[in-house]
Specification:
Strand 8 and strand 9 form a beta hairpin. Helices cover about 10% and strands about 60% of the residues. The longest helix has 11 residues. The protein has one helix and nine strands; from the N terminus they run βαββββββββ. With about 140 residues, the chain is mainly β. Strands 1, 2, 3, 4, 5, 6, 7, 8 and 9 form a nine-stranded mixed beta sheet that branches. The protein has a single domain, classed as 60s Ribosomal Protein L30, Chain: A. The radius of gyration is 15 Å and the shape is globular. The relative contact order is 0.32. Bound molecules: zinc ion. The site of zinc ion has 3 residues, from strand 5. Zinc ion binds next to strand 5.
Length: about 140
């Protein structure tokens, strides 16, 4: 399935040191009432929490806890609705002092050192998440 939205507002800015990255993204989208959109973030974190989805058991199998200062080499994602609420879905790639990378599904508990964001709102039909049977994930449904 897919839709063909139109570009809405564009935002660019930064989050503060010690903010929770996922919570900051979510509260920003809620404050601006961004109900559909895409975003990217770059910067650095003091520590991170990543999720990994176990495709066989259909659940997030624990968390990858990274108690390290890391660069946000890439963080991207989208915004849509789940149970009528604005929900941010983000994936992140983090790099250490040797340039080695870690990646995964961004979880609450990732602490910002510095973070610059770009958010593109999309308008038109809305996308709503609901449990999809084959994957067990809250995917976009028709
Ligand atoms: Zn994910």
């Amino acid at each position: 399935m897919h839709i063909e939205p139109k570009p809405g507002r564009i935002f660019i800015g930064r989050f503060e040191c010690d903010d929770d990255l996922l919570e900051s993204l979510t509260s920003f989208c809620k404050k601006e009432n961004i109900r559909l959109g895409t975003f990217n973030v770059l910067g650095a974190v003091k520590s991170a929490k990543l999720g990994y989805y176990d495709q066989k058991n259909k659940e997030y199998s624990g968390c990858v806890d990274l108690d390290k200062k890391l660069e946000i080499a890439s963080c991207m994602g989208n915004v849509s609705l789940k149970d009528g609420e604005i929900m941010v879905h983000a994936h992140i790639v983090l790099a250490d002092f040797e340039g080695k990378a870690y990646g995964g599904h961004l979880m609450p508990g990732t602490k910002v050192f510095a973070a610059e964001f770009h958010v593109q709102e999309l308008v038109g039909k809305e996308l709503k998440r609901g449990k999809e049977k084959k994957t067990g994930l809250p995917l976009w449904l028709e």
